[in-house]
Amino acid sequence: MNLRIVTLIPLRGFAQKIRCAAVLLMLLSALTTTAGAHDFSTSYARIDVTGASVDVHFTMNRRDLLAPDLAEAITTNYKLEAPGPPLTMAVRRHDTIAENIEVLDLVYTFSHAVNELRIVSTLDRVTPGGHSNILQIGEGDDARQAILNALNPSVEVDLEEKTFLATVWSFVKLGIEHIFTGYDHLAFLAGLLIMTTSAKGLFKVVTSFTAAHSITLALATFGLVSVPSRLIESLIALSIAYIAIENFTGKALIHRWKVTFLFGLIHGFGFSNVLKEMVLTRRTLAISLFSFNGGVELGQLAFVSLVFPLVLYLMASRWNSRFRTASSLGIAALGLFWFIQRAF
Prior knowledge:
Layout lengths: L12 H23 L6 E9 L2 E9 L8 H8 E4 L6 E11 L2 E9 L6 E6 L10 E6 L6 E5 L5 E5 L5 H18 L1 H12 L4 H23 L7 H21 L6 H21 L5 H34 L4 H24 L1
Parallel strand pairs: 1-7
Antiparallel strand pairs: 1-2, 2-5, 3-6, 4-5, 6-9, 7-8
Helix pairs in contact: 1-9, 3-8, 4-6, 4-8, 4-9, 5-7, 5-8, 6-7, 6-9
């Protein structure tokens, strides 16, 4: 994300405030045009090894593919080595199982029993920026997971050893990336910070949001509670608009930390979407859940550490009224835009 330093020029009168808000809206619109509202391009691969044969079950949303043919794109940009290349590779199945969801079954045959496997992904060449391939090798207690993307295009797996620490670190990184590519969550956090003027207030808000989304993230990931994704994403957008409108009016119906807890429960369901779609055992899922949630918390802390001092400075300056008005209008507009986009 490219950040530009904008010089604030003192403005007078209501018309000037509206122009200031319009400028911010254009900047935010440019951000969403290039990055999307919480777009998270993801594909999934389940890999099973049997002797010299390796089966890959690949699932992908067709809208995340910039190439015309899925089979050609995957066979060209998804390589398996053990440690050398396979003798043969064949497409066993290619189906559409739901609207825009395609599955591709590949079988790789090697000259020897596979004990070490190296997977290399260059899917970033044929997918939107920030695409991640979440892969699982094996099933049951011996299953292990990894995330491949442009920054981490390959993984090496010793099938005779368990990779607990590697799995933890992979999902921590995924949680951090999820926060910094989840622009709706960042907009919500920014809205919370605008009217937070003390360390005590910051602690209450951050703690209540963390506790709330951790609860529903766990409940949804373990399948104990299920809420339609469309409803959750629409409610997340409304939560952004509500917080911004409160900021604009300067009036809160209930204490900020309480409403933050309520909306945090909703955001937790949004965070769970990445892990819910993975085929994991309960034990493996627990490791992934806590690692992913830890990454989300680290991403939030980094964002708050960067933004909160700037908010304090602006709210204490002579531009405080203009800043609150413009930022609140901009965030409210984004929330309403995302709500319309997701609900309808």
